Amino acid sequence: FTIDGKETRCVGESIPAMSLLTGDWHLHAANGSHSVTTILSPSEKVIFEKHDATGHFAVTAQHEGLHRVCVHNNETSKRDVTITIKTALEVTDHASVAKKEHVEAIEAELDRMKKMAVHVYEEMLYMRTRNEAMQATNESTRGRLLWVEVVMMCAVLVMGLWQIQYLKRYFQVKKLI
């Protein structure tokens, strides 16, 4: 596009939060120091600013929304501007985009997730061992209770038979039968 002298033009791209916005700009027939390129977040906060006629930018969107790349022509004459914008899904050369601090942050997050997975696995093994111990206790208790019930039934039967015999003899002695 063409930009008039002392004019500012913006091109916007709506991107999700935590995604990468990269691109290049070039102002044709420029000295290099008479233009300002800025990137504005959805809240109008400047997240990138450069005073060159040509350059490359790579920023991570902190918030979802329309991110604008604005070029301000400080000269009085018209200038042609070329802007190329790519989002993280369109980036093909990830090696040039990835920075050491990004990789270290991802590695730290992966380490944290790995430790969490190991902890969950160990907790699962502990629960399985505990479940097996409880099942063994339940089985042995069930077996003991069966024998206690058999002995109790025998005792109740013996007591019942004894009472019948006792009452039968009592009534015979009293001559009620």
UniProtKB/TrEMBL annotation:
InterPro entries with a match to the protein in the record: Emp24-like, GOLD_dom
Annotated SMART domains: EMP24_GP25L (SM01190)
Pfam families cross-referenced by the UniProt entry: EMP24_GP25L (PF01105)
Main location: membrane
Transmembrane as UniProt keyword: yes
Superkingdom assignment: Eukaryota
Domain GOLD: 8-87
Subcellular location: Membrane
The keyword Cell membrane is assigned to this record: no
Membrane topology listed for this record: Single-pass type I membrane protein
Sorted UniProt keywords: Membrane, Signal, Transmembrane, Transmembrane helix
Residues that span the membrane, as ranges: 145-167
Assigned GO CC terms: membrane
Family statement: Belongs to the EMP24/GP25L family.
Protein name: GOLD domain-containing protein
Source species of the chain: Haptolina ericina
